[in-house]
Every structure is written in structure tokens, then in C-alpha cells.
């Protein structure tokens, strides 16, 4: 009888340890999705993400890369207001319910005031992550500008179509693993 109680107690302790580790890891790894201004705090890891609104290409006219980069960009800022270095990724969350535009026809360019420049690329060049494995020191802030436009080579099949997406910022306290 004592042996059975000892086994049950041991299994219970192991399960509690596993649950505690899982919850701790989940608490320190956060995904930020927003429409205006978000702030997440986990211990001393804190990222502020200033986001304007949904990125929307509806009934867009095809345009050259030069003209596309002349439209008003979507601007967002990421700030590390915690007291440890943060490692972050920037990605997209597409509206899969309403998108009817082929992402190979969506052209884009992402630049940051930290010197980052993706160059002109197509949206279909990325899965969900457009900027990977970046680090940000305590007190540092980076403002990004994203231009999106319809490729000048789009044919009539692109008329009346829609592409909507949101920016998603993932942050954690340890470096991302190499892919």
C-alpha cells in the first residue's frame, strides 16, 4: 500500500513540474496582435507595439514599383521598454476568409529606421515571417514602413479582388533558433 502511494505521489510531482515548466515558457513567449496600441509584460520582458490599422488592398490599380513606393506607407513602431534584450520577428496574419487576390500579385517593401530594407519583393515570397531573428536592446525603438501595391503586370483577373492582412510581432527573451 505504501509503495502504491509513493508511486502516485511521484507521478503527481513529475506532472506538476512539467506543467510549471510549460506555463513558465508560455508566459515568457508572447505573440502580439493589434489594432491600435498594445503592451505585454512578462517579468522584465516588455515590448510595446504601436499599430495603426488593417492593411487593405481592395480594387487597387496596378502600378510600377516606383509608383507603389510613392503611396503612403503603413507605419508601425516596436519599442523594448523592459530591462532585458528582446528577440523579435515581424510577420503577417492574412484574412483568409476575405482575401481573393493572388499574393504573387502583391508587391511590397519593408524598411526600418534601423537600416533594414527588404527591397521590393512579392508577398508570396514569404510564409508568415517577413523579418526574422532581430534583437532589440533595452530602451531601443524601431519604426518600420511597409508599402504594398498591386503588381503592374496584373491582368484583368485582379479587378474587384481584395487582400487584407495585419502585422504580427512575436517577441521572446532568448534568440530564435536558426532555420
Tell me the layout of helices and strands.
Layout: H1 2-28, E1 30-33, E2 37-42, E3 45-50, E4 55-58, E5 62-63, H2 65-68, E6 74-80, E7 86-94, E8 106-112, E9 121-122, E10 129-136, E11 141-151, E12 162-172
Parallel strand pairs: 5-11
Antiparallel strand pairs: 1-12, 2-3, 3-6, 4-12, 6-11, 7-10, 7-12, 8-9, 8-11
Keywords summarizing the entry:
5-stranded antiparallel sheet, alpha+beta, 7-stranded mixed sheet, 179 residues
Q: How much is the average pLDDT?
A: 78
- Helices, by number, come to 2
What share of the residues does DSSP label as strand, in percent? Answer: 35-45%
Spans with pLDDT under 50 lasting ≥5 residues?
A: none
Fraction of helical residues: 10-25%
Total number of beta strands: 12
Order of helices and strands: HEEEEEHEEEEEEE
For the report, how would you describe the main beta sheet? Answer: 7 strands, mixed
What sort of overall outline do the alpha carbons produce when their principal axes are compared? elongated
| Measured distance between first and last alpha carbons | 51 Å
Radius of gyration: 21 Å
Structural class by helix and strand composition: alpha+beta
Amino acid at each position: 500500500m505504501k509503495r502504491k502511494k509513493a508511486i502516485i505521489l511521484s507521478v503527481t510531482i513529475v506532472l506538476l513540474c512539467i506543467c510549471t515548466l510549460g506555463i513558465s515558457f508560455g508566459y515568457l513567449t508572447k505573440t502580439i496582435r493589434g489594432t491600435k496600441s498594445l503592451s505585454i509584460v512578462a517579468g522584465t520582458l516588455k515590448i510595446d507595439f504601436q499599430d495603426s490599422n488593417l492593411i487593405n488592398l481592395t480594387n487597387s490599380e496596378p502600378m510600377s514599383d516606383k509608383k507603389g513606393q510613392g503611396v503612403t506607407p503603413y507605419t508601425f513602431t516596436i519599442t523594448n521598454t523592459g530591462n532585458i534584450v528582446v528577440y523579435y520577428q515581424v510577420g503577417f496574419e492574412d484574412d483568409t476568409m476575405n482575401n481573393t487576390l493572388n499574393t504573387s500579385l502583391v508587391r511590397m517593401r519593408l524598411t526600418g529606421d534601423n537600416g533594414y530594407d527588404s527591397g521590393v519583393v512579392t508577398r508570396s515570397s514569404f510564409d508568415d515571417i517577413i523579418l526574422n531573428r532581430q534583437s532589440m536592446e533595452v530602451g531601443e525603438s524601431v519604426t518600420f514602413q511597409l508599402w504594398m501595391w498591386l503588381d503592374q503586370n496584373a491582368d484583368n483577373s485582379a479587378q474587384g479582388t481584395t487582400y487584407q492582412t495585419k502585422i504580427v510581432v512575436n517577441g521572446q527573451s532568448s534568440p530564435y533558433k536558426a532555420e
